[in-house]
Amino acid sequence: MSGADASLRDGALGRGELTLRREAGGLVLAGDPARYGKPLRVDFVEGRAAHRRRFGGGRGQLVARACGLAAGITPSVIDATAGLGRDAFVLASLGAEVLLIERVASIHALLADGLARAARDPETAAIVARMHLAHGDATHELAALVAASTVAPQVVHLDPMFPHREKSALVKKEMRLFRELAGNDSDAPRLLEAALDVATHRVVVKRPRKAPPIEGPAPHHVIDGKTSRYDLYVHRSLKA
Questions:
Q1: Which of 4, 66, 157, 195 could connect to 230 by a Cys-Cys bridge, CB 3.0–4.6 Å?
Q2: Taking the first listed entry, what is the main subcellular location of this protein, grouped into a coarse class (predicted)?
Q3: Does 10 appear as a known binding residue?
Q4: What is the tens place of the pLDDT at every residue in 81-96?
């Protein structure tokens, strides 16, 4: 289990607060339930991902619109802050080739495990075949990581960490776990700069609906949702 072994470099894991283990046929990241909630796992086959794949709204979903997926247009996407791969899976389910970049080794291990399990399921195998996983820090290595992949960087998608305002205690505990491992993404302006250098067509940044844009150039367009929005930085139009 080389992915799990590599994740021991993460600080919280090194202090023994969180552990990677096999549970119910998959890899999970677990800690004190009172602090972190249920064990965290990546599942593209069942649960939230399955429901969103079947009933999520297709190309009308906010992330799909922001990334430019429309009739006859399916750009390739670099998800430079992959997290649990939820947005990347939506984009791949709509036909996009997606490179997922994750810098936290333990989260990368969860993603690799989730992709491997989904590749064995007939309903998701074709989708995850369009998802390509890389381990690295996009803030400092984005150009190199993209150059080493087969995915063209037409669109770069960023979802930097931000204060979570949802009321669910479970969500708050999940975000607490992420912050324990990844920090608060204080380098988001540098990440945006790197993304603007690499993207050929646009950069899209997910933000809380009322939060200010990331420090740097002003976005050209904004797509608002109920609780979040996408700031769009456009180099050129996407075409069929």
A1: 66
A2: cytoplasm
A3: no
A4: 999 999 999 999 999 9
β-pair partners for 20: 29
Give the start-to-end residue ranges of the domains of the chain: 43-164+184-234
| Residue 32 assigned ligand-binding role | no
Buried-state track 30-54, b at ≥16 Cβ within 10 A, e below 16: bbeeeebbebbbbbbbeeebeeebe
Please tell me the distance from the alpha carbon of residue 124 to that of residue 46, in angstroms, as a whole number.
Answer: 10
For 210, residues 6+ apart whose C-beta sits below 8 A from its C-beta are none
Angle at which helix 169-182 crosses helix 105-119, to 10 degrees, equals: 120
**Residue 97, marked binder:** no
Contact between residue 28 and residue 41 where contact means Cβ atoms under 8 Å apart:
yes
Does 197 show up as a binding residue in the annotation?
Answer: no
Task: Note the helical H segments in 138-221.
Answer: 138-147, 169-182, 188-198
- What fold, for 43-164+184-234? Rossmann fold (3.40.50)
- Which tokens hold the place of 195? 């993304």
What is the Cβ-side half-sphere exposure of residue 225, based on CA atoms within 13 angstroms? 15
User: What digits encode the pLDDT tens for the residues 116-148?
Assistant: 999 999 999 999 999 999 999 999 999 999 999
Q: Residue with structure tokens 């305002």?
A: 165
The amino acid present at 156, given as its one-letter code, is V
Asked whether 201 and 221 are in contact (CB, 8 A), the reply is no
